Amino acid sequence: MATTSTQATRTILERFPAGGPRGSWPAEEYAAHQRAQGTNAQVVMDLRTDQFLVVTDTATQ
Fold first, then answer.
1. Which residues are CB-contacts of 3 (< 8 A; sequence separation ≥ 6)?
2. pTM of the full predicted structure?
3. Phi and psi at residue 32, in whole multiples of 5°?
């Protein structure tokens, strides 16, 4: 049985420190702004660097 896998490439649009002020969501706000402009942006947590990353599955120029 052959197994194939494809690895999705993500582009990091912006990085935000995880230790922001309480009630402040700059990564989510940035991602929402990107989505409003037509970019499929999502927020993910990079545990290794303790940062929130705004990423997209599409290549940006």
1. none
2. 0.77
3. -60, -40
Separation between Cα atoms, residue 29 and residue 52, nearest integer Å: 12
24's tokens: 């402040």
Mind giving me the DSSP string for 21-44? PTT--HHHHHHHHHHHTT--EEEE
Query: Can you read off the two tokens belonging to residue 50?
Result: 């303790």
Whether 55 contacts 12, CB under 8 Å: yes
49 secondary structure, DSSP code:
T
φ/ψ (deg, to 5) at 14:
-160, 155
What is the tens place of the pLDDT at every residue in 17-39? 998 778 889 999 999 999 999 99
